[in-house]
């Protein structure tokens, strides 16, 4: 039966590796300790045997008898006495020719003395390691010099004293009694530390093995860069720790942005506030470089410690365009409903007059309605030559009337014919501002009004919309175009992104839109560049001024 071999765990591998390192370190420490012990032995014993050799070489008996016939019998007691008193391993005396004449090892008498250095034969002293009769020793060789008048200073021979160097086991046995204790304590501490380190690593990796971590990383990278939403992670210092390709594209971030702060990346305003907010965010809207972004931010905490935040971004620009188009259809439906309601009321009046047989009054009522309609049509057509904008305001007047708001045209209004694309953008901005103003003015009570003023020069159109509403709160004045507020935001309501789209249209055409409070209410001013399809003639301008 085939048994699958179990793979070692990460914690087990770390423990084994740490223990192996501990063992190697202990061996290294032991080796260094033994080397230091050997060096200390060589230094101490080398000095001692050198002193003993010098003492013996200066002995008067040795200096007097070393060059005499049969010196071994006379020198033997002195040699053995030195051995006994000093506890050395060997004591050897050789004549000037290098022949051993006396030694504690009688078997080498008559043999040549092993020299540690050739200079010893020329009456020089030496100390170091030397092998004598097969035994490695720490030895010292000192010359014997004559002291009589006849041979004063003459090299008479050499004294060699050595102490056997301890073997490895002898060094271990003779080492400090605490060495094994130290090594044992170090082994225990190293083993416990390795075990704790392995547990910590396992806890930090959530019990996962390297192959599992690698698999999760691969899946995360595939998911992170495969989703259609942007993902941005920030640390508590507001530095980017993670961003996917879509996030870089939506925010126009460089490839090396990870690790940089939002300030260094040029992110500011509403977008900065949403990314760095203290609380979680749901479907927050921000405008960034012509894009409408919807963001959701989640805070990341672990063990009561704030690790940062993760924010997802969706590009809602195309959806906002569809919403705007849908809004235009909805607005058209509302306008048609308002006009149908207005016509129904007029028909009811006419029906009632007919039923009470007031036929002359019916005629006068119809003429009055026609005159009012013709007056409104003439006012719009004489001041606004572009048919799409004129038709828009005509329809908005019915909607305003239904909501008991007077929509009026400023006396300074003058707009010529526009290119269809320009007319569409002007109508979009005008419609959004008028809808916003009607919403604000409809709750202001009696005598509610909205005034529209359109002015045109050679390269731009300026749209000014005033209303009798409550105005815009000063603290919201800089946000109404970035968060999708209407003037009802002053009362705490947030509605759509109409004003944000208005700002996008204006900026796309090199203009801007602003809001200010007046004595009567709010005033929105939008300006954009356009290319005229037809100039306002001097005659038309005179008619408008009249």
Describe this protein's structure:
It is a single chain. This protein is an alpha+beta fold and 546 residues long. It has 3 domains: 11-174, Beta-Lactamase (2-Layer Sandwich); 228-310, PAS domain (Beta-Lactamase, 2-Layer Sandwich), CATH 3.30.450; 320-545, Histidine kinase-like ATPase, C-terminal domain (Heat Shock Protein 90, 2-Layer Sandwich), CATH 3.30.565. Helix content is 47%, strand content 21%. It is built from 14 helices and 15 strands. It has helices spanning 10-57, 60-65, 71-86, 168-174, 179-204, 210-226, 245-251, 269-275, 317-355, 359-383, 387-402, 420-441, 498-508, 538-545, and strands at residues 90-95, 100-103, 126-132, 135-145, 155-164, 230-234, 240-243, 281-288, 291-302, 305-315, 405-409, 448-456, 460-467, 512-517, 522-529. The strands form 3 sheets. The chain has a 5-stranded antiparallel sheet. It has a 5-stranded antiparallel sheet with strand order 7-6-10-9-8. Strands 11-12-13-15-14 form a 5-stranded mixed sheet, with helices on one face. Strand 1 (90-95) and strand 2 form a beta hairpin. It is rod-shaped, with a radius of gyration of 54 Å. Residues 486-496 and 532-546 have low confidence and may be disordered.
């Amino acid at each position: 039966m085939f048994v699958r071999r179990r793979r070692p765990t990460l914690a087990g591998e770390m423990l084994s590796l740490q223990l192996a390192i501990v063992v190697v370190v202990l061996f290294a420490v032991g080796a260094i300790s033994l080397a230091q012990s050997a060096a200390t032995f060589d230094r101490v014993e080398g000095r001692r045997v050198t002193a003993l050799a010098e003492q013996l070489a200066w002995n008067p008996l040795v200096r007097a008898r070393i060059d005499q016939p049969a010196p071994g019998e006379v020198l033997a007691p002195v040699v053995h006495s030195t051995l006994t008193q000093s506890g050395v391993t060997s004591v050897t005396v050789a004549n000037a020719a290098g022949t051993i004449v006396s030694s504690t090892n009688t078997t080498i008498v008559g043999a040549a003395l092993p020299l540690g250095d050739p200079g010893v034969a020329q009456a020089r002293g030496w100390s170091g390691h030397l092998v004598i009769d097969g035994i490695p020793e720490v030895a010292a060789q000192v010359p014997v010099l004559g002291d009589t008048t006849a041979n004063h200073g003459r090299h008479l021979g050499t004294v060699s004293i050595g102490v056997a160097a301890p073997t490895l086991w002898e060094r271990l046995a003779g080492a400090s009694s605490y060495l094994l204790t130290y090594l044992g304590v170090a082994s225990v501490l190293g083993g416990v530390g390795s075990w704790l380190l392995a547990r910590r690593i396992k806890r930090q990796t959530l019990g996962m093995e390297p192959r599992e971590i690698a698999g999760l990383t691969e899946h995360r990278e595939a998911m992170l860069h495969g989703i259609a939403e942007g993902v941005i992670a920030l640390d508590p210092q507001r530095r980017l720790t993670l961003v996917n390709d879509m996030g870089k594209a939506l925010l126009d971030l460089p490839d090396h942005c990870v690790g940089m702060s939002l300030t260094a990346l040029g992110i500011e305003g509403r977008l900065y506030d949403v990314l760095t907010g203290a609380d979680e965010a749901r479907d927050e809207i921000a405008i960034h470089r012509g894009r409408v972004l919807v963001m959701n931010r989640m805070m990341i905490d672990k063990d009561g410690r704030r690790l940062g935040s993760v924010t997802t971004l969706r590009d809602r620009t195309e959806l906002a365009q569809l919403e705007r188009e849908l809004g235009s259809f909805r607005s058209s439906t509302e306008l048609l409903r308002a006009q149908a309601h207005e016509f129904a009321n007029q028909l009811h009046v006419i029906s009632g007059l007919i039923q009470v047989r007031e036929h002359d009054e019916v005629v006068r009522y119809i003429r009055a309605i026609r005159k009012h309609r013709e007056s409104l049509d003439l006012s719009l057509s004489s001041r606004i030559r572009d048919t799409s904008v004129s038709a828009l305001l005509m329809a908005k007047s019915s909607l305003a009337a239904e909501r008991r708001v007077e929509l009026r045209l400023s006396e300074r209004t003058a707009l010529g014919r526009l290119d269809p694309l320009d007319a569409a953008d002007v109508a979009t901005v005008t419609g959004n501002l008028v809808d916003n103003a009607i919403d604000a003015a409809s709750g202001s009570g009696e005598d509610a009004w909205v005034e529209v003023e359109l002015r045109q020069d050679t390269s731009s159109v300026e749209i000014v919309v005033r209303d009798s509403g409550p105005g815009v709160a000063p603290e919201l004045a800089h946000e109404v175009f970035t968060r999708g507020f209407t003037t009802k935001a002053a009362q705490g309501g947030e509605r759509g992104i109409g004003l944000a789209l208005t700002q996008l249209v204006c900026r796309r055409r090199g203009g801007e839109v602003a809001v200010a409070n007046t004595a009567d209410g709010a005033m929105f001013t939008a300006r954009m560049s356009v290319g005229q399809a037809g100039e306002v003639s001097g005659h038309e301008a005179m008619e408008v001024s009249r």
